Amino acid sequence: MANWILGLTGGIGAGKTTVSDYLNKSGICVVDADVVAREVVEPGSEGLNAIVAHFGAQILTDEGTLDRTTLRGIIFADENEKSWLNALLHPLIRAQLLAQLAQADSDYVILSAPLLFENGLEQYCDKTLLVDVPVEVQLTRTCVRDNAHQQQVERIIEAQMSRTDKRAKADFILDNNQPLEAMHTELAALHQAFLQQAEKKRA
């Protein structure tokens, strides 16, 4: 793959989208794993057809789209069903991510994925950037943003790779527990460094 790829990740509520939006406004293409995960189960897709064949029409809303709440209830109650779903969707998502990364035409391209390290996606990246905040900040931000219960957010955080392990794996770490202006200054400097590295790869 010719493009220089930056893997962007961060735990829930860390502010990964703020970072990807900033870099996108600077002219950098963003391939978002969350968006691709929705695309592969759109009506008429191979993914959704396989899910309906497996779970039945109860998994659809009245509009014919995937009923995520019903599906979530099934897979969280049954580890085998969760494994089946992952075995179906992960290859579809990965193939689509790689296709979009190859088509990107900016100076470098971002692969944005909350589970970048958990799903081994860093193998496709030249460098990785972790957007990092303390766990207490993750909890507060996510509860406010999603109007969620603290216990629910705690479970999501526990299911993700630990902050310590992510910090050890990442090539670059951006502290997002600072004033927005200071974070943007740091991010602008990183952006310049990424442009230089991408230029070297093309040379």
Main features:
single chain, 9 helices, alpha/beta, transferase, five-stranded parallel β-sheet, 5 strands, Dephospho-CoA kinase, 2 domains, Rossmann fold, 11% strand, P-loop_NTPase, 203 residues
Describe the overall structure:
The chain is of the alpha/beta class and 203 residues long. It has two domains: 1-28 and 108-203, P-loop containing nucleotide triphosphate hydrolases (Rossmann fold), CATH 3.40.50; 35-105, P-loop containing nucleotide triphosphate hydrolases (Rossmann fold, 3-Layer(aba) Sandwich). Helices cover 56% and strands 11% of the residues. It contains nine helices and five strands; from the N terminus they run βαβααααββαααβα. The chain has helices at residues 16-25, 33-39, 46-55, 68-77, 79-103, 135-146, 150-159, 163-169, 180-202; strands at 5-9, 29-32, 109-112, 127-132, 172-175. The protein has a five-stranded parallel beta sheet, sandwiched between helices. Helix 4 crosses helix 5 and helix 6 (135-146) packs across helix 7. 28% of the residues are buried.
List the helices and strands and how they pair.
Blueprint: E1 5-9, H1 16-25, E2 29-32, H2 33-39, H3 46-55, H4 68-77, H5 79-103, E3 109-112, E4 127-132, H6 135-146, H7 150-159, H8 163-169, E5 172-175, H9 180-202
Parallel strand pairs: 1-3, 1-4, 2-3, 4-5
CATH C-level name of the largest domain: Alpha Beta
What is the overall shape?
Answer: globular
Oligomer status: single chain
Estimated radius of gyration = 18 Å
The second-level CATH architecture of the largest domain is: 3-Layer(aba) Sandwich
By CATH, the superfamily of the largest domain comes out as P-loop containing nucleotide triphosphate hydrolases
CATH fold descriptor of the largest domain: Rossmann fold
Distance between the termini: 15 Å
Characterize the biggest β-sheet. Answer: 5 strands, parallel
Strand content: 5-15%
Catalytic activity: 3'-dephospho-CoA + ATP = ADP + CoA + H(+)
Protein name: Dephospho-CoA kinase
EC number: 2.7.1.24
GO molecular function, one term: ATP binding
